[in-house]
Amino acid sequence: MIHLLRVPIIRREEPAPGHVELWLQSPELATSTPGQFADVVTEGMLRRPISFSRIDRANHQVAMLLQVVGDGTRWLAAQRPGTMLDVMGPLGNGFLPPAPARDWCLVGGGVGIPPLYAAVQAWGTHTASRPTVILGARDQQLLLLVDEFQALGCVVEITTDNGTRGRRGTVEAPLCDWLDSHPDGQVYACGPTPMLASVARLTQGRTGIFLALEQRMGCGIGACLACVIPGYGVSGQAGYLRVCTDGPVFRSEELIFE
Amino acid sequence: MIHLLRVPIIRREEPAPGHVELWLQSPELATSTPGQFADVVTEGMLRRPISFSRIDRANHQVAMLLQVVGDGTRWLAAQRPGTMLDVMGPLGNGFLPPAPARDWCLVGGGVGIPPLYAAVQAWGTHTASRPTVILGARDQQLLLLVDEFQALGCVVEITTDNGTRGRRGTVEAPLCDWLDSHPDGQVYACGPTPMLASVARLTQGRTGIFLALEQRMGCGIGACLACVIPGYGVSGQAGYLRVCTDGPVFRSEELIFE
Amino acid sequence: MKLSVNLPRGLVLKNPIVAASGTFGFGPEYKDLVNIGDLGGVSVKGVSPEPWPGNPPPRVWETTGGLLNSIGLQNHGVEAFCAHDLPFLRDTGTAVIVNIIGHTVEEYQRVAERLAKEPGVSALEVNISCPNIKQGGMSFGHDPDQAYLVTQAVRKGSDLPMMVKLSPNVPSPAVIAEAVQSAGADMISAINTLVGLAIDKERRRPALGGTTGGLSGPAIKPIALRVVYEVAQRVKIPIIGMGGITTASDVVEFLMAGAHAVMVGTVTFQYPRRMQEIVAQLPDELLRWGFSSVQEAVGAALPSKRGGLFDALT
Amino acid sequence: MKLSVNLPRGLVLKNPIVAASGTFGFGPEYKDLVNIGDLGGVSVKGVSPEPWPGNPPPRVWETTGGLLNSIGLQNHGVEAFCAHDLPFLRDTGTAVIVNIIGHTVEEYQRVAERLAKEPGVSALEVNISCPNIKQGGMSFGHDPDQAYLVTQAVRKGSDLPMMVKLSPNVPSPAVIAEAVQSAGADMISAINTLVGLAIDKERRRPALGGTTGGLSGPAIKPIALRVVYEVAQRVKIPIIGMGGITTASDVVEFLMAGAHAVMVGTVTFQYPRRMQEIVAQLPDELLRWGFSSVQEAVGAALPSKRGGLFDALT
Ligand SMILES: Cc1cc2nc3c(=O)[nH]c(=O)nc-3n(C[C@H](O)[C@H](O)[C@H](O)COP(=O)(O)OP(=O)(O)OC[C@H]3O[C@@H](n4cnc5c(N)ncnc54)[C@H](O)[C@@H]3O)c2cc1C
Ligand SMILES: Cc1cc2nc3c(=O)[nH]c(=O)nc-3n(C[C@H](O)[C@H](O)[C@H](O)COP(=O)(O)OP(=O)(O)OC[C@H]3O[C@@H](n4cnc5c(N)ncnc54)[C@H](O)[C@@H]3O)c2cc1C
Ligand SMILES: Cc1cc2nc3c(=O)[nH]c(=O)nc-3n(C[C@H](O)[C@H](O)[C@H](O)COP(=O)(O)O)c2cc1C
Ligand SMILES: Cc1cc2nc3c(=O)[nH]c(=O)nc-3n(C[C@H](O)[C@H](O)[C@H](O)COP(=O)(O)O)c2cc1C
Ligand code: FES
Ligand code: FES
């Protein structure tokens, strides 16, 4: 059930330079599954899609971790506790939890990291093994939630393009290592499309690989067909899938990357 | 000399319901003549033309008395002391002072009243007789600056359309009376165009009748030819005159009202 | 206040607020959020005889006061529409307007014939902004003769109330309106989007996957009002006006310019309930400007209603 | 960074920022506020052979992100312009572009001939959005043949560098661009305003004295970019782009879409010094997107520069 809500900001933090995390009080949003998102009114013509970095059902709270990239996120990041936001959600399909007996690994880049954190929070303790988390960024300053993942008991591997922290390079190398040592492992990935394309390529033939995509959106609820990406529909035919309602989380075999 | 200025609001008052008076600190604007105006940046695409209600050369201050009629004036009226406004001015031609030996009368309606008050402030004490001020409004609530005119020693006559204060009706009746008893009197008028048309008709044949007009403006400095009204140019030919630079104050014989 | 609008061939809208094609999906998408039965009507996204794939993403881009879209008329074809979408809409109690598209005159006629057989369709809206693939891709809506032929074919295909939707990308949409009126159109809807483009400086290419896109939203309202105002003086059939409407005040402007009803599009993305809010506010807004019914406002700013004052100096 | 732009027939702009016709008067109006010599050029308001009175007021009306104007090309004629205005501009050190208008082909030619004799004119800009009174008032800019004839006549009348200014109110401005190129135009300027209308609900009539007006400002930027992008692929002559520019970032978009220089209009009313600010910021803005000169950015988003990537999926 999708709701149109006015929800208060109850807490605001700045976890990294240019990033702001906003806690919202909302029983409706707190029913979300990790990977789902909300669409928020800012100042532009369209709402802005933002995932949940934390989902606290017990306390009826969710959080959003924003990177300031343009006018909409700048406006949102400037809001203070007490402000009411105009939010539509929860939207889209979230991640399915890992199969009880299978190992799992999370691969995140940039603002793809927050929904993965929500996933580990939700399932971290009910699974076969503690998950491995591979985080990539251009620079160490852009890494998000490293300590939080560690606090949940995850094995965290870091890569930076410029080598300022962890391995120099992309997430591909540590992911290859992990895949080699976990032949039946499942992967959850969220981040820039080229990263997701790598993950899809490296995991080809496996099942239980979930990728969360981004696309520019219009309506956020499946009506406008703006947010499409190439993939295979229910019929198995190649065509366009909607990130807002068919996703944002897809099984890798549903998607077509060129 | 026209200036592009950032000037601070130093005082803010609410002289009547829906009206706000803002005092600005600016040596440049304080050189203005009564009847001149400034063009202020608000939120729209165009600046908003506003006259000065007070010009205090000694203290380098001017005031603007605003009626809230739309988004621009609403924004301006909401600004607080300390805010810097983006103001262009002084603009246009002001009133010429009355001839030393002639009686004078001021006829004002709505937001046409403030510049007349600036005029009396500037000249009130240097003239043959204390001026008569005829103020018209739809309702007594919309009358501006009555006490202030009286404090300067003016004879104030009031008309309201609904009879809630002073004579019921328009400014025409008291103006006719005044004109009858002051055959050589000069008139200064500012207000809605139909009121100015009446003044022009009733004063036909007289000299020294000054009318301050309003028109929707583009540039405010004579470049776009948006703010025109029908009249006679320097050549004496009928055509369009610019309110922003040929006016806003015109001699009545320059104007054509139909 | 009576808000209902009577249109040709018995089409009745319970109020003059209709969801614009392409912004309200094929029917069920907004059902969690909008009480669809409260709307005057819903015009569904364009439906073609066979499925159309649409354009590559990205498909939307924001501009000042506007939205560019290059959806490219993606739809799963008239059969799927009749099977999966129409049954939902039919039961909502709103007028169901099916926006139809084709690449040839025959394709338009085929969709119209198919829909004529299907219960629950209140009216057809013929979108003539599609490229005519038999005539080198030039839009049907850019040429009065082409527009005439499409309208005539749809008229042959169906007895449903039919409106033809004008493109604003021509010097005189009123000429197209005259052509479709004479070909049997019952109503005009106007306007469709204006062709625009945005640059993605980072990728050094046009921002939209479809290169150009259609501009909608408040930015185009003055153009929409101009088209409605001009068309209203050239045809006798009613006009459904649209383009940039976001408030009840905007609706009154379109009525005064000559529209009998309006469609509301882009604003729904940001405020899904705005159409319902407008319906609720419309009576007060009409009264505010001195109108005691929708009908009274229609054309109130047209020269014919203003007794020749039209070109006088203010 | 080198900002100067070399254009046909020896026209050199010291930078690519030119004041758009009709928004900077006839020259001296902004002299208290703007250092005119810092601008790449000034295009003066349209000049006709005889004085034109213009339209009744009101002549401007704000819209979302845009401005409607119905000035109606008021001007005091070419003789008064040469006597009173040109001498001022000639001495400012900026390129003086004279926007010329007429109601017949002969009128355009007459203004061009008169200006060809006058020292200090850097270029002519032929505004073909005027109604052709010999052909029933249809705009010269809406028909390639009419546009051809006007351009040819101006070419006959003068050897000055000449640009023809396109109307966006046609399905394909590129077709008009091809016509004027073949008639001898040295450059294209684009776009002029779009025809719009506003309703004054209080007076129950169109808001503008001229009924309809021209829409300018950020609202039309996507349409302007589309026209520049399309024209750049159809003609070989340089384009001066405009429509809704308010920042150096906008300028880079127009350059990437294929413009060699730009004109800046409506924003000047609100921020008279914005053009100078843009000139100052342009080098940094170009560097930010990886360009080390104006020339490098020109057409960077065109398919020809993108090695066929153009229609690929993102
Ligand atoms: C399902 C989903 C989940 C997301 N979760 C997060 C999150 O948790 N934290 C976070 O910081 N960001 C997230 N994003 C990205 C976020 O939506 C964009 O950064 C934001 O919309 C940019 O808006 P802006 O006005 O600041 O930037 P501008 O560049 O000014 O935006 C202009 C336009 O681009 C759109 N846009 C720009 N970038 C993106 C993008 N990457 N994806 C979709 N639309 C985009 C905007 O919605 C808007 O229409 C998510 C995106 C999607 C689709
Ligand atoms: C020379 C001059 C002096 C003025 N002095 C004062 C004054 O001292 N105090 C005061 O309250 N008002 C004054 N006005 C009127 C004031 O400019 C308008 O009320 C104001 O521009 C309305 O803007 P808005 O955004 O609130 O209203 P909106 O109605 O939203 O404005 C829309 C547009 O209309 C224009 N506009 C609306 N009404 C007028 C008008 N009457 N004259 C000119 N443009 C208008 C606005 O500039 C804008 O372009 C003066 C006008 C002029 C021309
Ligand atoms: C995303 C989107 C998709 C659209 N799809 C269609 C369509 O399929 N058929 C059609 O006739 N119009 C379509 N339109 C145009 C709208 O119906 C409407 O004419 C236009 O958007 C102007 O109204 P607005 O400014 O209220 O949005 C679409 C508009 C948008 C924004
Ligand atoms: C008030 C006004 C007057 C204009 N007058 C003319 C004119 O005389 N000749 C002309 O070719 N264009 C004229 N234009 C159009 C502009 O030169 C320009 O093409 C248009 O405004 C788009 O640019 P902008 O969005 O930066 O304003 C005028 C525009 C405005 C706003
Ligand atoms: S954003 Fe409209 S369908 Fe996904
Ligand atoms: S407002 Fe531009 S000339 Fe007066």
Commentary on this structure:
By secondary structure, chain A is α/β, with parallel strands linked by helices. Chain A has five helices and 16 strands. In chain A, the strands form three sheets. A seven-stranded antiparallel sheet of chain A has the order 4-3-7-1-2-6-5. In chain A, strands 11-10-9-8-12-13-16 form a seven-stranded mixed sheet, with helices on both faces. Chain A is globular. With 314 residues, chain C is of the alpha/beta class. Chain C has a single domain (5-312), classed as Aldolase class I (TIM Barrel, Alpha-Beta Barrel), CATH 3.20.20.70. Chain C is built from nine helices and 16 strands. In chain C, α2 (105-116) runs parallel beside α3 (144-157). The radius of gyration of chain C is 18 Å and the shape is globular. Mean pLDDT of chain C is 94; it is low at 307-314. Chains in contact: A-C, A-D, B-C, B-D, C-D. Chains C and D meet through β11, β12, β13, α5 and α6 of C and β11, β12, β13, α5 and α6 of D. One FE2/S2 (inorganic) cluster (FES) binds at residues 217-220, 222-227, 242, 244 of chain B.
